[in-house]
Amino acid sequence: MLAGASLLWLPRFEVDVVLDLLPHATSFMGVPTYYSGFSPVRNWMESWWKAFVSSRPGRRRCLPRLTGSSPGGPDTPSSNATG
Amino acid sequence: MNLFDRLLESHRSDPDRLLLRTADGAELSYRDVDRISARFAWVLRDRGVRAGDRVAVQVEKSPEVLALYLAVLRLGAVHLPLNTGYTAREVAYFLEDATPAVFVCSPASAGPPSQQGSLPQILTLGGAGGGGGEDGDLVAESEAHPDEFPTVDRSPSDLAAIVYTSGTTGRPKGAMLSHGNLLSNGEVLRAAWRFTEQDVLLRALPIYHVHGLSSRSIP
To answer: How far is A17 from chain B (nearest CA, A)?
Structure first.
């Protein structure tokens, strides 16, 4: 609200619902148990990456550190970029 | 400096800006939430809540709970969120310790007065809070009230919220958070995470948790 942004408001954490909505969000906040909930889901990182790239090009540099690889593309940062 | 004014500042020039969309597609603008919170604030005021009084809240997550939080802020009262998993005995401790003026809960938690200490008022959020439609329904009562409410002025050091610790080293303690604390926290995170009005935060966190309390200010 301080930034004038908007919320996708979920009553609780459900992996399938979160993955469906990630492409419509620019940010997701969670706790460690949320991310462990993602891990059994095939291609969840791909979904996350697509949401990330489509929404905020300026934040791409976070992801190579998480994945350990470069996703490619014209905006891909150098390997020493930090999140 | 009431935190409420800072949170709603961004919408003054664009009141129809989207604030919140639920999973089933319902949408609330900044103006909608402003109006709902104004009506809630009138109900709380009519029920005797004044600046500095605590308002304990133990309800399921809903858009109305966000409006209730804002209503408590603009009234100058103190938001006291409680985990929905707390038992009646645990809740009794919090209510005795914090002595709230009002306890907003689900009808199932309302219980007889003997379980709730000396609470003067018990309200529910109707269907939005996990129950519905009976006496003391804050949502139903609010419908007769105006869409505007004069925000009560507060200083940065005035209390805005109390969040109880988990109690791993003893009984839970009420951590006192001022308007200045919550504003500073939100502004630092907004700057660090580069939030702008173009952002959309997917939010699944519970609202009774301190992280949920802080992060709800950022977008």
So the answer is: 8
Listed in sequence order, the residues at least 6 apart from B115 whose beta carbon sits closer than 8 Å to its beta carbon are: B88, B92
Burial class (CB in 10 A: 0-12, 13-18, 19+), B23: middle
The secondary structure of residue B104, as a DSSP letter, is: E
User: In the beta sheet, which residues pair with residue B124?
Assistant: B137
Q: Per the CB < 8 Å rule, is A2 touching B198?
A: no
Q: Shortest Cα distance from A22 to chain B (angstroms)? A: 7
The count of other CB atoms within 10 Å of the CB of residue B172 is 18
Q: Over its length of 83 residues, how does chain A's per-residue pLDDT go in tens digits?
A: 888 899 999 988 888 898 889 889 998 888 877 877 776 665 666 666 666 666 655 554 444 444 444 444 433 333 333 32
Q: Which of A8, A9, A10, A22 to mutate to test the interface with B (most CBs of B within 10 A)?
A: A9
Say whether A5 and B14 touch across the interface (CB within 8 A). Answer: no
CA A34 centroid distance within chain:
13
> Which residues of A are less than 8 Å from B85 in CB distance?
none
Non-local (6+) Cβ contacts of B114 within 8 A are none
Q: Is B202's CB within 8 Å of A6's CB?
A: no
Number of C-beta neighbours around residue B198 at 10 A: 12
**How far is C-alpha A32 from the geometric centre of its chain's CA atoms?**
14
- Give the tens place of pLDDT for each residue, B62-113: 999 999 999 999 999 999 999 988 988 899 999 999 999 999 998 766 554 4
B10 φ, ψ to 5°?
Answer: -65, -20
Q: Hey, which bits of chain B come out as E strands?
A: 18-22, 27-29, 54-58, 78-81, 102-105, 121-123, 159-164, 174-178, 200-203
Judged by average pLDDT, the poorest of A74-78, B37-41, B148-152 is A74-78
Tokens linked to B100: 């709230």
